[in-house]
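Suppose you are handed a protein chain with no further information: no name, no annotation, nothing but its sequence. What can you learn? This example shows the usual starting point.
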Amino acid sequence: MVDANAVNQIQPDLGDVQETLLIPLYYRACETHREDAIIRDEDAVRIIDGLDYDFSCFDEAKYVYLDCVIRSEIFDERVEHFICNNPNGVILNLGAGLDARFQRVDNGSIRWFDLDFPDVIGVRDHLLPASDRVTHVASSAFDFEWLNALDVSRETPVMVIAEGLFCYCEESQVRELFLQLSQRFQNAHVLFQSISPRYVGRESQVGAVNKTRAKLRWGVRSGRELLAWKKGWEFVGEWAFIDRHRSRWGRLRWLSLLPWIGRDLREVLKVTEIRLSNSGKREVGDTQKNAQGVS
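A reasonable first move is to predict its three-dimensional structure. Written in structure tokens, the prediction is:
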């Protein structure tokens, strides 16, 4: 008997870096089934069921699993914080993959742009369609024509999110993107995940990632390093994954108590938020005390 669901499944034909979007998607779906779930994402469960792909190759990467679900939790929290302070603002989701963050944090008025390569947006159009407040943009994040074409004023509060993207890019690309965003918007927050420079080029040693063809190309020990790129930018906060849900980390929970190991873990598993403003004006509620877990 033919399985009707299998007949209707989409077989994703994705590029080298684009294929990595399947890793956090799968882990969010797996986490959703847990009673003590860090994050619940029913859309991820639905999407996994709609894809013809052997996700079992990602099953052994325990720590990358936690990396993905905890970083999703942090991103959701910070985006919700931004939306609370800017209910009519704009979110630019770079390297959107098949993430359903809009559905998880929508306040009913925010405008949202999901950007990714055309092959990804083609799949996304089927599984997470655009709507009146959600626009799909088929482009590389570093082809800045998309930025010039946005129907968003310079004065609009904007949060740019890049989850699991910059580590696959060259530093020169990331730097130019930040400079372009700073020039384009008067008040932009950038929320991004980064790895430590020590892991650049070591993708063969990183679980799940080593099942794809992607290369790790850029990392920083702390997002504070990016403040050297332009005067006037503000470090909002940095959140280390190892400091959350300690009971789930197994032996790393105890190893992280050793100074040099703990420092390394906090450098390689983190999310940073930077405000690209030259005005020096702070938003209400967006102070350092809101960035719990800053390291």
